[in-house]
Structures are given as C-alpha cells and as structure tokens.
Design goal:
Blueprint lengths: L1 H20 L6 H5 L3 H5 L2 H28 L39
Helix pairs in contact: 1-4
Length: 109
C-alpha cells in the first residue's frame, strides 16, 4: 500500500511540474528557453511532448488510484466484532465457575 502512495505522490508532483511549465497561450517552456528548444526539436514538438506527458501522467495517476483501492487490505472476519449470542430464556443457566465469589444478598425484613 505504501508503494502505491509513494508512486501516486511522485506522479502527481511530476504532473504538477509539467502543467506549470506549460503556458496556455503556447509560450511556456517551449518559447522561453532562449531559442534552445527551437534549435533542438522545434517549438511545436516541445508543446506536443508536454501535452502528451500531461495526458500520460493523468492516466497513470488515475490507474494507480484504482489499483491501490484493489490492494487495500480489507477487514477480515477475526477483526470484525462478533455478533453477541442470542439469549435463550428456556435454556438452563450455565453453572458458575468453582472459584467464583457468591453474590451477597441484602437481608429481607
């Protein structure tokens, strides 16, 4: 379970960084690196990579959340409260243990 939590937090952090790097008007990282990205792969391809990365990480987070729900340990029968036995008024009372202290009764007048 802890493994899934760590993976989900890591994927969410990376997803947040990718989203923050993007600019809704197309500027973002694709246009602000001093032309470096333009020389390497072009502005259009950088925004495509960031958009695909966003979608992939969003799907990864969703799948990890669903898978972690499958692997959560469920309460077993021994951990659940037992249902009290029904008292049968016609059944004979159980005898007291041998070392039991007798109840003191108050004297009647």
């Amino acid at each position: 379970m802890l493994f899934f939590v760590i993976l989900i937090i890591l994927a969410c952090a990376i997803l947040g960084l990718i989203i923050l790097v993007q600019n809704p008007k197309g500027g973002g990282l694709a246009g602000n690196v001093g032309g470096f990205s333009n020389q390497l792969m072009g502005v259009k391809q950088t925004t495509d990579v960031l958009e695909k990365g966003t979608w992939v990480l969003a799907v990864v987070v969703a799948l990890l959340c669903l898978l972690s729900a499958v692997f959560v340990p469920r309460a077993s029968a021994s951990n659940q409260r037992s249902v009290p036995e029904k008292v049968n008024p016609t059944a004979p009372a159980r005898p007291a243990p041998a070392n039991a202290v007798p109840l003191q009764t108050q004297p009647t007048k």
